[in-house]
Amino acid sequence: MELLSDCPVHTSVPDKYVLPPEKRPLLLNDEPSSDVAIPVIDLHRAADDRQRHLIVAEIIKACKEFGIFQVVNHGVAEDVVQGFREAAAGFFGMPAEEKLPYRSDDLSKHFRVSSSTPYDRNGDRYWLDYLKINCHPVTDEHVREWPEKPASFRSSLAEYSAAVHELAQTLLRLIAEGLGLDGGFFAGDLSGGSTQMNVNYYPPCPDPSLTLGLLPHCDRHLLTVLSQGDVAGLQARHGGGWLLVRPIPGSFVVNLGHQMEIITNGLLASVEHRAVTNTAAVRLSVVTLIMRKMECRIGPAPEMVNEATGPAKFKEFEFSEFIKAYSAAAASREDVLHYFRIHR
């Protein structure tokens, strides 16, 4: 398995990464101009009881209109974020032979490195390498599989994953409040699965018009918290087009996954997104996925089946069943939801 990061400079796009014409992106400077921007929410204000309801309302509005937003003043220290980002970049920068022991497509591993994505049913390849990490709660079993190099990798990952997990729980409490639910509604089985992390590495691409960093998809999980750094590349579907999620220093990007849409009976929508490439700079994103326990049953929450949302729109299922359907649908948003939607 060849990694893109094993070759520091790419002078052309290999044929296997060239997408069919109908799947290729427009270059960023050819995208239609738009005044629409992804909402940015200052979480520090949520600590003020007089302003908390305003922040909650902003979050729910963003969830309904976009399914994605950015947060600032979120409580995760910048040195914690940068510490792990630097360690992750250091891993991808290691010689190929030092990464070789970690190369794998075995989903049972708590740490592995691979390339492209397993979800495209046509075998198209995408311009990225990635780490898949089981990261929270931190256990000895997890840590033993994490790499010893760079030297700071294990400690910085443990610190970062704990801080982001806490942020995710805060966000889930605010979303629950905004839906009129108990603040602990999403705790327990709904968000108690092993937290997973994807660290995506996109090297400079000689011709971004020919390929994508990541295919259009919705996340399988409940909630995603993303550190995208200072290099643009994430785009979110909105109003029939693609909005660039512009990097904001010190921010996290938060987006809703399929499970949130199903639990809220469609009131909040999962957001389709993709990654585009660039010619000038490495882009590294750290994606933390908050997920349910595999054995728990999923469906619209009884509290969310009401006059506002109508009858239940989705059937109940186990999360393990959803994972199989997601893979079979090659991560296509509509194909996945069609499988679980109740058709009347």
UniProtKB/TrEMBL annotation:
<dbReference type="GO" id="GO:0046872">
    <property type="term" value="F:metal ion binding"/>
</dbReference>
<dbReference type="InterPro" id="IPR027443">
    <property type="entry name" value="IPNS-like_sf"/>
</dbReference>
<dbReference type="Pfam" id="PF14226">
    <property type="entry name" value="DIOX_N"/>
</dbReference>
<keyword id="KW-0408">Iron</keyword>
<dbReference type="GO" id="GO:0016491">
    <property type="term" value="F:oxidoreductase activity"/>
</dbReference>
<dbReference type="Pfam" id="PF03171">
    <property type="entry name" value="2OG-FeII_Oxy"/>
</dbReference>
<keyword id="KW-0479">Metal-binding</keyword>
<dbReference type="InterPro" id="IPR044861">
    <property type="entry name" value="IPNS-like_FE2OG_OXY"/>
</dbReference>
<dbReference type="InterPro" id="IPR005123">
    <property type="entry name" value="Oxoglu/Fe-dep_dioxygenase_dom"/>
</dbReference>
<feature type="domain" description="Fe2OG dioxygenase">
    <location>
        <begin position="193"/>
        <end position="292"/>
    </location>
</feature>
<dbReference type="InterPro" id="IPR050295">
    <property type="entry name" value="Plant_2OG-oxidoreductases"/>
</dbReference>
<dbReference type="InterPro" id="IPR026992">
    <property type="entry name" value="DIOX_N"/>
</dbReference>
<protein>
    <recommendedName>
        <fullName>Fe2OG dioxygenase domain-containing protein</fullName>
    </recommendedName>
</protein>
<keyword id="KW-0560">Oxidoreductase</keyword>
<comment type="similarity">
    <text>Belongs to the iron/ascorbate-dependent oxidoreductase family.</text>
</comment>
